[in-house]
Design a protein that fits this description.
This protein has one domain. Helix 1 packs across helix 6. It is globular, with a radius of gyration of 14 Å. Strands 2-1-3-4 form a four-stranded parallel beta sheet, with helices on both faces. The protein has six helices and four strands; from the N terminus they run βαβααβαβαα. Helix 4 links the parallel strand 3 and strand 4. By secondary structure, it is of the alpha/beta class.
């Protein structure tokens, strides 16, 4: 049987639009997809994934995933594990911010220079997780 060569990692981001850390997750994930690890990452839409999106579920079943959650509810990690298997890595934004001694953002939208250090720290941690997952594959 042929094994799939792992060349991409799926990123499942928090979709919590009611909390600033949810926005932080999505902005940082987008930075990884577009700038830090383009071509090595794809996004998996959490609401579509949960609702039964075949492409999302198929990808997450065949390729490793990294979940990025904005709070301790761990919606992305729990849904991914339930629907396609345990994520290769699970990141929690409050823990990342604490490690970097950064405050949580307070805005729900329109991030700017004040939020940039938090976005950068989370994006860099996601990129490192992508590197680790691809190295293990």
């Amino acid at each position: 049987m042929n094994e799939i060569q792992v060349t991409k990692v799926g990123i499942v981001s928090c979709s919590g639009e009611e909390i600033p850390n949810g926005t932080l997750c999505r902005v940082a994930c987008r930075r990884v997809l577009d700038a830090l690890r383009p071509g090595e990452t794809v996004t998996i839409c959490l609401p579509l994934f949960i609702a039964g999106g075949e492409e999302e579920r198929s990808f997450a079943s065949d390729y490793p995933t990294i979940t990025v959650d904005g709070c301790e509810k761990l919606c992305a990690a729990k849904a991914t594990e339930m629907l396609s298997g345990k994520p290769a890595k699970s990141l929690l934004v409050p823990e990342i911010l604490k490690r970097h001694n950064l405050p949580a953002p307070t805005k729900l939208r329109q991030f700017g220079p004040v939020e940039e250090p938090a976005v950068e720290a989370v994006a860099e941690e996601i990129a490192k997780a992508v590197d680790a997952v691809l190295a293990e594959a």
